[in-house]
User: Fold this.
Amino acid sequence: MTQVLVEDDTVALLGEAPRWHVGERQLYWVDIAASALHRYDPLTGKRDTRTFAEPVGCFAFVRSGGFVLGMREGFALLDDWASDPVPFGTPILRGLSDLRLNDGRTDSIGRFWAGSYDGQKTGRAALYRLSGEGTVDKVVGDMMTSNGAAFSPDGRTFYHADTPTHAIRQFPYDPETAQLGEGRIFHQFPAGRGRPDGGSVDAEGCYWSALYDGGRVVRLSPAGDILREIALPVSRPTMIAFGGDDLCTAFVTSARQGLSPEELLAQPLAGALFSFRVDVPGLPEVDFVLR
Assistant:
């Protein structure tokens, strides 16, 4: 039986986007509802927090240093931990108060793929591609909650979920041209047992998904079959990513936002950061490349 540890019990309203920085040997993640970016050292247990004027839904490390942030109106660059965000690229969501950027991943060439969240669930969410020059292109539209962005080890398969559909989709991808091929259903989860939120791919090409309102994370084979399920002490895990020196520690963020008082009483760790060990390492995060 897999031992799930409470890595950090400082609960988040909407924890998301855990990312391991190999050089710093630290984990970063966000609390979207608190407009916060956290930095955590597993060896010492020390956690630092930055708060911003608007939510950070996703981010990536920049190869030259700092971060690219997916925020409420669009993208921004953060030169270092102490600096202020500077808008980067077109503010694609300006004036759309019910939308914000939500989940993203960098491809093997260093472009950032990030999607949006539609608070009204009217199908206005979309998946965008941000280049190192600051060009923002809309790639897929007509969604409600863009989530689960991840790439295969060879960079030629893209995984993505529109969470309310309970489906993870798989796309062939050409990193040289940045073009997605025709998508197909990779795995369809049944209603009532959790919805696919954030995901990551391991070194064997298996896709791990956190099931929001499902209380667990699952490992799916490259063919889309469930190979493993890890139960968590909270109902709303939001994303899984890998870290540690061997990339064999799985870190899972979670949420407490929207839970009833009775549910919060039953799961006091809702919003905490969890970890467990895996046999197959994850993939290191690819840096965003400014050009």
About this structure: Residues 253 and 273 are 5 Å apart (CA to CA). The chain has a mean pLDDT of 97. DSSP finds one helix and 25 strands in the chain. The helical segments are 261-266.
